[in-house]
Structures are given as structure tokens and as C-alpha cells.
Amino acid sequence: AQSVTQPDIHITVSEGASLELRCNYSYGATPYLFWYVQSPGQGLQLLLKYFSGDTLVQGIKGFEAEFKRSQSSFNLRKPSVHWSDAAEYFCAVGNNDMRFGAGTRLTVKP
Amino acid sequence: GAVVSQHPSWVICKSGTSVKIECRSLDFQATTMFWYRQFPKQSLMLMATSNEGSKATYEQGVEKDKFLINHASLTLSTLTVTSAHPEDSSFYICSARDFVGGRTDTQYFGPGTRLTVL
Fold this sequence. Notes:
Radius of gyration of chain B: 14 Å
Structural class of chain A: mainly beta
Strand content of chain A: over 45%
Oligomer: heterodimer
Low-confidence stretches of chain A: none
Number of strands of chain B: 11
Order of helices and strands of chain B: EEEEEEEEEEE
Largest sheet of chain B: 7 strands, mixed
Distance between the termini of chain A: 41 Å
Strand content of chain B: over 45%
Helix content of chain A: under 10%
Largest interface: A-B, 20 and 24 residues
Shape of chain A: globular
């Protein structure tokens, strides 16, 4: 069965610092992988997705993620965090039945 | 493009009443829509998959008679919480799949509906 693990429940970074959010997945076939961001009380916004091809995926708001099959990982990165990036981030895997990780809450210090 | 709306954005109802939540794809046709439930500070849990013109497929543990789903058109799916109780209070989020063709598709999410049952 497919599953997603986000090992970090909460991460705090300083504004301007780099960010990496971890995501590990378990999937029987070639996975469809996604990163979504959710602000409090809001729905989910798609940051980026990986279906096939180049393993380094560029998304919106300066985010990128790298698919590493050997490590079953799809970590999200941003070189310089802005205060407005504070939110909950969800990694997801799947196609017909999408499974979400538990989420990582990002706090940005001034 | 690829905008999904939900109505209402929040609703408060009395225990025992039924509540209907609408999910619309505004600028694309969605053959498949999904309904999720999210408890505070938790992840999204898939409740059911809704295909236009056919019965919804419910995840294990989700009562289909409790959560009625109708997907009558390619742009509208509704979730009705019947005889709501306080434990049904939650954040309900829908998504619609934009079928591009082949194997690639993406779910676009609505803004969610906050249901509070008194």
C-alpha cells in the first residue's frame, strides 16, 4: 500500500535561511508525487509535482523538489525563506487515491 | 486556471440536521472529484472518490449513508452530511482532477468548508 512519511512535524527557520522539508514514500509503481501548502483555515495550493522525466522539479514561489528513487524521497527545498512561507506543508503520493503525509508546520523567525 | 470552489466556506448547524456542501470546478471539467476530511492539526484523510454519473467509492470506515455524495455533472459534486452530530465537526475539502490525457493528471483543491455541529 502506498504511504507517505514526513519525519518533521515542526520546523523553525530564520527568514532568509535555506529550507529543506523531508518526504519519504512507499509506492508499488512509479509514483506521482506532490507538494502542497496550506495556510491556516485554507485549502491546499499545489507547489509542484513530479510524474516523470527530470528528477529536479521547479515549482511556484521559488520552491523545488528532487525525486530520488534510490532513497524513496521527494524533499522540498527553498534557498531563501520568506516570512510569508510560514504554513503547513504536505507531501502526497498517488494518482487515483492520493495519500498525504502528516504535514510539516513551518515557522519563520524574523 | 484550474480553480475549484466550495460553498459554503463555513456552516454551523444543530445536531440532527443535514448539511450540503458543494464543490465546483470553475474552469475545467472534472470527471473525478475527491472528498477529504481534515481534523485540527492533522493531515487530510480521503473519504470518497466521486465519478461523474456513477456511484461514489467510499474509503474503508466512511459511512456512505452518513456522507451522501452526488456527482451530477462534470463541474459539480455535492457532499451531504446527514443527521449531523458534533463528532462530524471538521474541515471538509474537495478536489477535482483535471484529466489532461494519458496518465498525467493533477488534483486541484477547493478552499475547504468548516462544519461545526452544535
